[in-house]
Amino acid sequence: MALLNLQDLSIRFGSTEAVRNLSLRVDARESLGLVGESGSGKSVTALAVLRLLGESAAVTGRIEFDGRDLAALPEPELRRVRGREIAMIFQEPMTALNPVMPVGEQIAEAVRLHQRGLSRRQVREQVLEAMRAVALPDAAARYADYPHQFSGGQRQRILIAMAIANRPRLLIADESTTALDVTVQAQILELLAQLRERFGLAMLFISHDLAVVSQVADRVAVLRHGLLLEEASRAAIFRNPLHPYTRSLLGAVPTMQMDLEKPLAMLKASAFTTVQFHIGEDSPRAIPPLREAEPGHWVRSVPEPFG
Ligand SMILES: Nc1ncnc2c1ncn2[C@@H]1O[C@H](COP(=O)(O)OP(=O)(O)O)[C@@H](O)[C@H]1O
Ligand SMILES: [Mg+2]
């Protein structure tokens, strides 16, 4: 059963269509990677799930979490979902942490916000447990330290500790390793994989980098200009990437085996150029449909003049 189920999600800012008719699901304990270049609509999708977009955004469609439509949930109930059942970690650990509050206290605040009635001792125990779960050395000794006393990778671990302290069922990670150097990034990805296993977490892992996504995602969804272009298991995306844009993300060279039923010359023409979808109000049919190329592997046809 789907834990998170987006159905026909569209997000507009005035005349800008940031996300168009996006349907996606994340099953319990599953990790879905959402990949696409900057501006493709990844972050607004994540923010829409938690209803954190401002008034300027017009959101339509269903956002089901565990059978409830979050889009229709009253704000007080939604607040219980945010942070408690769905936690989010952002890109910038330094801006997400309060520089003048000890890190242990910051994690404790997150715990107290969602689990009322815990004693001081119980809160502290949960904080230390979360700090240990993210492999922060000397958790007890460092409880009272401030963010600047930690390295960038450790600060990211602190944010992850805050996110998992309430044992959420879904973790949304938006470019959460992008600011880190490659070695630290690999350690954080490894940590996320461990936490998933240990706590049975589902993950929506967002990145512009398909190589990073492929390290943590069971399934990959490729977004461009707010449109889902391809979705498949991680293995299928690498073995048989179908959309030219997915191949360009992989840095792959088009080959004769591409199963798009198109003349090779046309594929070459489309492979690395910007495929512009002309989607005006007056021409909704200009969006080519998704088709299931092999079981569980969906791809949007390459639009005219290439399709
Ligand atoms: N608050 C906003 N007001 C207007 N446009 C926005 C706003 N937030 C995002 N957008 C637009 O929505 C599109 C998708 O943005 P975003 O989800 O941040 O992309 P990504 O995370 O994939 O880089 C972009 O064209 C962006 O300019
Ligand atoms: Mg973003």
Concise summary:
The protein has 307 residues and is an alpha/beta fold. 35% of the residues lie in helices and 25% in strands.
Question: What does this molecule look like?
Answer:
The chain is α/β, with parallel strands linked by helices and 307 residues long. The protein has two domains: 2-85 and 168-300, P-loop containing nucleotide triphosphate hydrolases (Rossmann fold), CATH 3.40.50; 97-167, no CATH class. Helices cover 35% and strands 25% of the residues. Strands 6-7-8-3-9-10-12-11 form an eight-stranded mixed beta sheet, with helices on both faces. A four-stranded antiparallel beta sheet has the order 2-1-4-5, covered by helices on one side. Strand 1 (2-13) and strand 2 form a beta hairpin. The chain is globular, with a radius of gyration of 21 Å. Magnesium ion binds at residues 42-43, 174-175.
